[in-house]
Every structure is written in structure tokens, then in C-alpha cells.
Amino acid sequence: KKKQCHESFWERQHCFQIVERALPCLATITYLCANNQECYVEWISALKSHCVSQLSKAQSKVPRLRELRCLNLQILEAHRLPFKLVPHPYCVVSLNQVKVGKTRVKTAPDPVWEEEFVLDDVPPDVVTVTITVLSRGKRGKDSEVAELTVDLCSLKNGQETEEWFPLNGMTPMGEWGSIRLRIRYLDDLVMPCEEYSPLQQLLVESELNAVRALSEICHNDRIPLATSLLKVFRHEKRETELLRILCQAEVARENETSTLFRGASLATTLMDLYMRAECTLFLQSAVSDTVQRILDSKQSAELNPTKMDVNDDACSNAEFLLMILDQVTQSIFTSPDACPRTVRYICNCLQKAVVAKWPSPSERLVRTRVVSGFIFLRLLCPALLNPRQFGLVNETPHQMATRSLIMVAKCLQNLANLVEFGGKEPYMEVVNPFILKNKERMIVFLDQLSSVTDPNPPPGCMQEQSSSSTLSSSDAGRELATLHHICVSYLPELQAMSKTNNALKKLVTVTEMLSKHKLKYREMIS
């Protein structure tokens, strides 16, 4: 059997595993790592035909039917772990007892992980997900101390559940504490791609009525909705339009400049996903050297006295931080051309939208802040805080480097907001001259970055290489199946909205029609 392997397991991307099961209790596992996403997809496709047992019941009866099995697991925190037995806990995630991912090491008794595992190709034979709590030992001798197994069939299909689960100790003793998980498991039927054609047409129509309606009601399903929509629109080469229209709609809805794009919405989620997929070269150009310099340095940039090491010298730390800040701003401010043209175009549209809505001179900085909110607060700063997740480094930074990166991100965030540090954090005031010195440069940089008025490159220029590979029809079917499932989940709300919005009547009709078709397919395979 071929199985996904989360990048956290080996701290490397594009890993997968082959599980050869001679007996139910005996398996040989081989881990493999592809060089890149394209290579990974090729390997998976090539192996699929050899994994006979992975043909689901549906496929064996109707070859063009597939089952969609996605597990989204968030390990949030644990409570009251026995500190003496598990001082440095981390979790390993297993499907049917085969390990697929792991969290970072934290400190007991109440560790907070807040780590997400998205496994979007769960084999049909997988019936359980197990979270094992291990204690990081000296010289790599880690010990399993407690676990929790969840039967996938016990979860409500497609619905997110969040709860505390009691942990069972490996040794029979008293309390082992509990762990808080957020889980969504979707087991659905993917019909042949052409079945979803009416839904696809409705979603991509020029006014985006259906998408806007879904954005208003699908708050709990915002991430799967955004992920699938983005893939479908990219398949149609219309992702720029999707992002532009939803961002402009959000500007139109908002009354306060201070809260603009600060909350989580479909527009911000789409932008997060899109920038993360497209801005790798920009991130490398803007912050990669800084991250590496911090990782290689023996010097801390910590300014918070409560977080400083005993041997830390506040002056040396401040000096190092200011040096790093000068370097990183120089690197960022000279990188606007590395930012993808489409992202720059959307920033341009955002600037125009906010200036039209808030033309008064007192609001003149809103055009800067609307762009910095995306480029800094949602891209550059998160990349500094999680360089491994953004593909800038292969391993999780050590503790001192992590704290230094937090300090750099914190300072850049204030600079991006064009505000100095106040009295609440007196130890940060040493950074204020740096912020004052660079405010104007920040405004100029963001205007320069947003100066692209056409998403298409000028004649004679090479088309930018998009990091998205085009969707095959089976992948498009899969994304449309997810979108149909979301429409079904929110059908009562859509029906209510359709009473006052004629454009949604079609969406309701198509959703119901596809459900009937799916029922027929289910009858064919039952």
C-alpha cells in the first residue's frame, strides 16, 4: 500500500511510504522522498496501479468512481501530563498504527502544539487514527508513554469536531491527562468529472455570486472551501479574478480601516494559500539570508528580560537585532520584483479600492497598511516565524534562533503597521529609531510592490512560471466533489438565501441534482 507521509515526520517535503503487509500484525514500511512536487506526483501515480488493495469498493464496480478520504487533524494542546514521566512531550500521528507525522517537542504538564496534519489521500483500509505521546529522551532514546485512538467511523462525516480526549497510559497507573484535538474526516464519493460540470460553471461565472454566498456562510469550512476553490479557479486560469473580486468585496463591506482584512475570511484565506504557493522565490529573495544568518549565529537577539538567558547581555542582543533588522529591511526593500506579478497586481487593486473608499487625507496610510497586512503580516512575518513550513530551511530552528526570529518578526510587524513600540514593552523601545528611520522606505516599497496594473506580463516578457501544476480531470473532480459536499452541508442556509437572491436558486438546484446523481452511483456499488 502507498501512504502519505506528513512532512513533519522526516522534516522533509514530498515524502511517502510503501507499506507491505504480510499479516494484519506484520508490516514492512519503506520510506521514500521525491525531489520535488512534480516528481512526487509521478511516483504516486506510478505506484497506485500496483497497490491493488487500495482500489476501493466503488472503483472495483464502477472504474471512474473514486472515494475521497481526507483527514484534517489539529493537535492543539495537552493538559495535566505527568511531568516526571513525560517532561518533554511530543506526539506521533499514526493511521492504522503506521506512523505518518509528528509534532514538535514541548514542555509538560500543559504543552501547546497547535499543529495541523492534512492527510488528503487516506487509504480505504484505514479505520483508526492514533495519537501517541512520547517523551524526548537523552541520546535519542524516546519512550512512548500514552496514546489515544479514534475510530474514523465514529466521526461525523465532513464535520469538524473539537474536544478533549483522555489519554491512556502505556503502563496501568493513575491519571495520564488529556489532549485537545480538532478533527475533520471526510469520506465521500467522487463521481466522474463531467457530472460536476454544472456546479463548476456556476462557481466560475463572472459575478461569482455562488462563491460570494458560500463565503458568507461557510465559516467553519473556510479552509477546505478556499483550497478547492483556488484549485478549480487555477485550472480555469482565473485565480487572479477570484482573489481580486473577493478582496474588493471585503473592502466594500468594511467600515473601519483598523479592522480591514484583520479577521479570517474567505478572501484572506485564499490570499494566504495563494501567496504561500506562489511566493517562494520572493521569500527566498527577501528573508532567506536573514533566517540563515540567525541560524548560524551564536548571538541572541532577545530583548525581553524575562526570556533572556542568564549569560545574555542586553546591549549585545540589541546590537545584533538592529544589525539583523537593517539587513532584512534592505533585503526586503530591494526585492519587489521577485514578488509574483499576480500578487503585485492584486495589491494594486487593493490600494485603488481603499483609496476610493477612504479618500480623506487623514486616511492616507490605509493604502500602505492594506498591502502590508498581506505582504508582511500574512507572508513575510509568518515565514520568519515558521521558516521550515515555508520551505526556507529543512529543519526546525533551535530555541535561541526561534526567539531571535520572533523578535525580528515582531519588529517588522510594527514597522509594517508604521507604529513604534509603546510603554507596554519598554525593552522594545530601543527599536523605535529603526522604525522611524524606515517608515518612509516602507511606504515607498509597498507602493513600488503595488505598481503593477496588469496581471499579464508586457509583450515580449516571459510568462511567470506558476508553481501550480494544472489539475487533471480526476483532480478537478475531487475538488468539485469537496465543493459539492460543502454546498450540501450548507444547503438550508443556501435555500434561505436563495429566496432573496435569484442567482442562488441555480446553486441550490444543482446541489440537489448532484446529490441525486450520487445516490444513484451509491446504488450501483452497493
TrEMBL record:
Matches recorded under InterPro entries: C2_dom, C2_domain_sf, PH_domain, Ras_GTPase, RasGAP_CS, RasGAP_dom, Rho_GTPase_activation_prot
Swiss-Prot/TrEMBL keywords: GTPase activation
Record domain PH: where: 1-52
Keyword Cell inner membrane in annotation: no
Region described as Disordered: 454-474
One Pfam family recorded for the sequence: RasGAP
Residue stretches making up the Ras-GAP domain: 221-417
Domain C2: 51-165
GO molecular function annotation: GTPase activator activity
Descriptive protein name: Ras-GAP domain-containing protein
